[in-house]
Design goal:
Elements lengths: L12 E6 L16 E2 L2 E2 H10 L5 E6 L3 H11 L4 E4 L6 H9 L8 E6 L7 H13 L4 E7 L8 E5 L2 E6 L6 H4 L3 E10 H10 L13 H8 L4 E5 L12 H21 L3 E2 L6 E2 L4 E2 L4 E2 L3 E4 L3 E2 L4 E2 L3 E4 L2 E2 L4 E2 L2 E4 L2 E2 L4 E2 L3 E3 L4 E2 L4 E13 L4 E13 L4 E2 L4 E3 L9 E3 L4 E2 L4 E3 L2 E3 L4 E2 L4 E2 L8 E2 L11 H5 L4 H8 L6 H10 L1
Parallel strand pairs: 1-4, 1-6, 4-5, 7-11, 12-15, 13-16, 14-17, 15-18, 16-19, 17-20, 18-21, 19-22, 20-23, 21-24, 22-25, 23-26, 24-27, 25-27, 26-27, 27-28, 28-31, 29-32, 30-33, 31-34, 32-35, 33-36, 35-37
Antiparallel strand pairs: 2-3, 6-10, 7-10, 8-9
Length: about 500
């Protein structure tokens, strides 16, 4: 684990409590794997704990532990898990976490896996206060307007003498607004002795970690509190309503931070940004933008409205409008949309274009190449300055295999064409509109693959004499429209 940014020495251990049932979430997925701003709550807890550079990082698991352990294994190899088979209270959970840490001395931090806004810096401050005041135990606290449901911090002459759970509190104690976050720093020896003293003599019949505070006070050991101003850092998540509120608060913080760094958000309330997204200065986000995963947006790019990007890299000064994209790359100065669908493997070069109602998949579209509208481009390599006409289909799948199509530099594919892979259209080649290309079109060649047109004179008047088409034809002088004549003259 990396060393912290300040001079704080590492702690002996951090025990993260992650064994709770989470029944109020009403989910087949562990509560701890529900996401806040694109990251599971458990990931935030491990990151905050790792900021203390602990010699031992232990996560206590229990309910739905297979899911939790699987996620932990992906997060870090530098942590261990302990199992709490029965949910017998926070004190019992910490005891389970310490079972494999015999002989560990120093400071032990206890925190929770469902407090996603808790920051590593705040834990560092807690440890610094604990050490600076030579406490046996230090608890993180906050003041809230409505403390209902929280454990209260009981003081005498401003000194902490205990913590009382809401259900066990007297009416006088329920009026206390300073609440227990459940996050502590303990001296290791004190913690072990305190855990040994715990009983289940309370309303829930559980071993309360909070009782160790009174245990220390009764033995004249120094108990301290670190009051944090940011109440959200002490807030846990127990149901989907709280999860939604946590996401709202996280989004507010993420948006504010990016706007202070020079990002414009036309309607922040309709803009959603995951915690791992990276935005450059002078990016503009229009209403309805959702940026997910590890998406990065380059300087001066314009995104939206109504655009969702997941793990997409967008270059400087690109413009992406009404688009859904995932695992794709959009080059500098490129334009995408509206109504484009970029599937994984799409790479659009600098100043390239993917236009209206275009779907791309595993497609490399080089600098300056254009797919302006109404096309499907799958498993394709399109070189610089090529132009793909409207209605073109890259037929990449034969029912068994997917194959590649290559369109060379400055080649032009006419509208309503089908390129049946594997096929190569060479540099500077042209494909006539309406062609179905099954063989290669060499460089500089015109590829034509369509039936010849046949006009049946007088068919409308004979077959449909009463139709509006027949009436219109009778009124017509039969001459070719001047605009078409002009276009033919220009082409000639």
């Amino acid at each position: 684990m990396s060393a912290p940014d300040n001079d704080l020495a590492q702690v002996a251990a951090v025990v993260v409590l992650a064994a709770g049932g989470g029944t109020r979430m009403k989910s087949k997925t562990s509560k701890l794997l529900h996401e806040v701003a694109g990251k599971p709550m458990l990931s935030y807890a491990v990151s905050a704990a790792a900021a203390l550079d602990p010699e031992h990082l232990v996560v206590v698991v229990g309910h739905q532990r297979e899911q939790v352990v699987e996620h932990l294994e992906r997060l870090s190899e530098q942590l261990t898990t302990a199992v709490q088979d029965q949910q017998l209270g926070t004190g019992h959970a910490v005891a389970c976490g310490l079972a494999g840490l015999e002989g560990v001395e120093g400071d032990i931090v206890v925190t929770y896996a469902d407090v996603p806004l808790l920051a590593g810096d705040t834990l560092r401050q807690l440890v610094a206060v604990h050490r600076g005041r030579h406490n046996a135990v230090t608890v993180m606290t906050a003041r809230v307007a409505d403390p209902t449901g929280y454990g209260r911090i009981v003081r005498e002459n401003d000194a902490v003498i205990g913590i009382v759970e809401d259900r066990d509190a007297t009416e006088e104690q329920r009026s206390i607004t300073e609440i227990n976050s459940g996050i502590y720093v303990f001296d290791a020896a004190t913690l072990r002795e305190g855990l040994a003293s715990l009983t289940t003599d309370n309303d829930q019949g559980e071993m309360y970690l909070t009782d160790i505070v009174k245990f220390c006070h009764d033995r004249s050991q120094k108990v301290g509190a670190h009051l944090v101003e940011d109440v959200w850092q002490t807030e846990g998540v127990n149901d989907r309503i709280q999860l939604a509120r946590m996401n709202q608060e996280m989004q507010r913080r993420i948006r504010d931070a990016w706007m202070l760094k020079g990002v414009t958000m036309v309607d922040p309330a309709s803009t959603f940004i995951d915690v791992d997204v990276d935005l450059a200065q002078d990016v503009v986000l229009h209403p309805g933008v959702i940026l997910q995963g590890a998406t990065t947006i380059g300087e001066g790019a314009i995104i939206g409205p109504s655009t969702t990007l997941m793990d997409v890299e967008v270059g400087a000064n690109a413009e992406v409008i009404r688009t859904h994209g995932s695992f794709a790359v959009i080059g500098e100065g490129a334009t995408v949309g509206p109504f484009a669908y970029l599937r994984p493997g799409t790479i659009l070069g600098a100043n390239g274009k993917i236009g209206t109602f275009v779907e791309t998949k595993n497609a490399q579209i080089a600098d300056g190449a254009k797919v302006p509208h109404l096309a499907y481009v799958g498993d394709a390599i399109i070189d610089e300055q090529a132009n793909i006409g409207a209605g073109t289909i890259f037929a990449n799948y034969d029912g068994v295999h997917k194959s590649k199509t290559h369109v060379g530099k400055a080649a032009f594919v006419g509208s309503n064409s089908v390129l049946v892979a594997p096929v190569d259209v060479g540099a500077g080649a042209l494909v006539a509109a309406g062609s179905t290309i099954t063989d290669d079109v060499p460089a500089g060649t015109l590829g034509v693959a369509r039936g010849r047109q046949r006009n049946v004179e007088g068919w409308v008047a004979k077959a449909r004499p009463e139709s509006k088409q027949a009436a219109a034809a009778a009124e017509s002088d039969g001459n070719v429209h001047p605009a078409v004549i002009e276009s033919r003259e220009k082409k000639a």
